[in-house]
Amino acid sequence: MYCKWSVRYVEYCGAIAMALLCAGIIRLGMLGKLHLYIHPRYTIFTLVMAGVGLIVSLVSMMAGCRLRQTIKPAVYTGIRPTTMRVATALLLVMACAGFLFVQPATLSSRTAVSRGIDRNPTLTDVSVSQALFDTADYSQLGIKDWSSLLAHYDANFIVGKTASITGFVADNGNANIFFASRFFVTCCVVDAQPIGVPVYAPDWRHRYAPNSWLEITGEFIENPDADSLHKIVLKPSRIQSVTPPREPYVY
After folding, report:
1. Mind telling me which residue stretches traverse the membrane in this protein (predicted)?
2. 177: alpha, beta or left, given left = phi > 0 and alpha = psi -120 to 50?
3. pTM
4. CA distance 23 to 47
5. Which CATH number applies to 109-241?
6. CA distance 68 to 12
């Protein structure tokens, strides 16, 4: 005998989970933290769809309550195929509830390292880098621009130029070099790609902690560390601790 009440209960839990998830998204929007998860250009669309999803889930729950009142619980014996469904639904509800109350946070330096911060990812094509090459004022370039130039141009062009960048510390395993890093986001944090500039600071671990945000000014030099694969590094003349920016990602 099939237990109709259990099936309706699972569907009811699914509606609760959707409501919690949509409420969590709306909460992030009200806190101004939705940009920690998606590109800002998708904010309005995401909030509108979350509002629609919340309304649909609430209507579904009300309809489910009325339907449950008309169905008497049936006794089910033997192996219960709906047990796993109920357990899965409850886990989904708890996960969505956790998302609703979790403290929003940016991606960490560990994520940057695991996604290949030390491989100098190419985020722009040669034509864009050529526009950076032709600029008259390199002091205005940010961490994304320098990361692109490091990927496309050799030491003859980079060495001797000064830069001022802001990023968080990422440990790539070298005691003399860390990466000033940020994440480049095209859609959401799932596709976020770490970018960064290698900074030459011997024994840096005694002074700077991973994930701490720094504002670094210095000059690009040929890498004096023979154990590093990077040909060019930024030798800082000034390093200052700063608070995380309101927009931690670059686009």
Report:
1. 12-30, 42-65, 86-105
2. beta
3. 0.73
4. 10
5. 2.40.50
6. 10
